[in-house]
TrEMBL record:
Organism annotation: Mesorhizobium argentiipisi
Family: Belongs to the binding-protein-dependent transport system permease family. CysTW subfamily.
Keyword Transmembrane among UniProt keywords: yes
Taxon lineage: Bacteria, Pseudomonadati, Pseudomonadota, Alphaproteobacteria, Hyphomicrobiales
Record protein name field: ABC transporter permease
Membrane topology recorded in Swiss-Prot or TrEMBL: Multi-pass membrane protein
Subcellular location: Cell membrane
Length: 286
C-alpha cells in the first residue's frame, strides 16, 4: 500500500512526474530567469546603485513621448489588424474546406518568409517612386506622390501585414464554432445583414477578437525592425530607443531600465490574456 501510494501520488509535495519537468525548469531558469534578474540588477546598479535610471526614464519628456508613441502605434496596428482580419477570417470560415485549406496555407506561408525581407519589400512599394505611388499617379488618382514611408502610415501598413496571421488564426477558430443556423434564424426574423452582424456575429466572435487583439498588441509593443525601417524619428518606439541607448550612447543602465519596464508591461498584458481565456473556458472537468 505504501509503495503504491508513492507511485500514484507525490513525494515530498512534488508530483510523481516532476523529474521529467526538471530539464525544462533548468532551461527556463538559465535562459529567462537569470537574464531578467541580470537586467533588473543592471538597471539599478549602473552607473551607481539607485533608481536614477527609472527616474530619468519617467522624468524625461522625450522618453515619456517614446512610451506613449509605442502604445499609440501598438493600438493603431491592433485596431487596423482587427478590421482587416475579420472579413478574411469570415471568408475562411464559410468557404469550402478544400479552397479554405489553400487560402489558409498561403496565409501561413507568409509567416515563414524572413521578416527583414518583407519589410524591405514594403520599403520598395511605399517609397515616393515606388509601385503604389506610380500606379496611383498613372491612373490620375493623385498628382503628387503620397508620403507612405518614414511616418505612422508606413509603420502601420508594414506591421499590419506582419500581424495579420496572428489575428486571423484565433478568429477563424471562433467563427467556425458559431452555428450558421443562428444567422439564418436572425434573417428569418427580419434582421438585416448589418443587424445580424452587430447583434449576433460580432458578440459571438468577441473571444477570438480579444485573444488575437491582445496578442497583436503585446507583440507590437516590442517590435524593432519594421518601425525602424518604415518609420521616422517622430515615430520612434521603445525597442528602437533601447537599441540606440545601448549601442550609440552606451548607457546600459538606462537601456536595461527601459527594457525591464517593457518586459513588465508585456508580462502583465499576457497575464491578462490568460485570465480572459480562463474566464471564457466553461467550468467543469476534474
Amino acid at each position: 500500500m505504501h509503495g503504491n501510494s508513492l507511485r500514484s501520488g507525490s513525494i515530498a509535495g512534488l508530483p510523481a512526474d516532476s523529474g521529467g519537468a526538471l530539464p525544462a525548469l533548468v532551461l527556463v531558469g538559465l535562459f529567462f530567469v537569470v537574464p531578467v534578474v541580470a537586467l533588473l540588477l543592471r538597471s539599478v546598479t549602473d552607473p551607481e546603485p539607485g533608481l536614477q535610471n527609472y527616474a530619468a526614464l519617467f522624468g524625461s519628456g522625450t522618453y515619456v513621448r517614446v512610451f506613449l508613441n509605442t502604445f499609440l502605434v501598438a493600438a493603431v496596428v491592433t485596431a487596423v489588424t482587427i478590421v482587416v482580419a475579420f472579413p478574411v477570417a469570415w471568408m475562411l470560415a464559410i468557404m469550402p474546406p478544400a479552397l479554405g485549406s489553400i487560402v489558409f496555407g498561403i496565409i501561413i506561408l507568409s509567416m515563414w518568409t524572413n521578416l527583414l525581407t518583407r519589410t524591405y519589400a514594403w520599403m520598395v512599394l511605399l517609397q515616393r517612386t515606388g509601385v503604389i505611388n506610380r500606379t496611383l499617379m498613372g491612373l490620375g488618382i493623385i498628382q503628387e506622390p503620397l508620403p507612405l514611408i518614414n511616418n505612422l502610415t508606413g509603420v502601420t501598413i508594414g506591421m499590419v501585414y506582419i500581424m495579420l496571421p496572428f489575428m486571423i488564426l484565433p478568429l477563424v477558430g471562433t467563427l467556425r464554432a458559431i452555428d450558421p443556423m443562428t444567422l439564418r434564424a436572425a434573417a428569418l426574423c427580419g434582421a438585416t445583414p448589418f443587424q445580424a452582424f452587430r447583434r449576433i456575429l460580432l458578440p459571438l466572435s468577441l473571444p477570438g477578437i480579444a485573444a488575437g487583439g491582445l496578442m497583436v498588441f503585446v507583440m507590437s509593443l516590442g517590435y524593432f525592425v519594421t518601425p525602424a525601417l518604415l518609420g521616422g524619428t517622430s515615430n520612434m518606439m521603445l525597442a528602437e530607443m533601447i537599441a540606440q541607448t545601448v549601442q550609440s550612447l552606451l548607457n546600459w543602465g538606462l537601456g536595461s531600465a527601459a527594457a525591464f519596464v517593457l518586459l513588465i508591461v508585456t508580462m502583465a498584458l499576457y497575464a491578462l490574456q490568460l485570465r480572459l481565456i480562463s474566464a471564457k473556458r466553461p467550468a467543469g472537468g476534474l
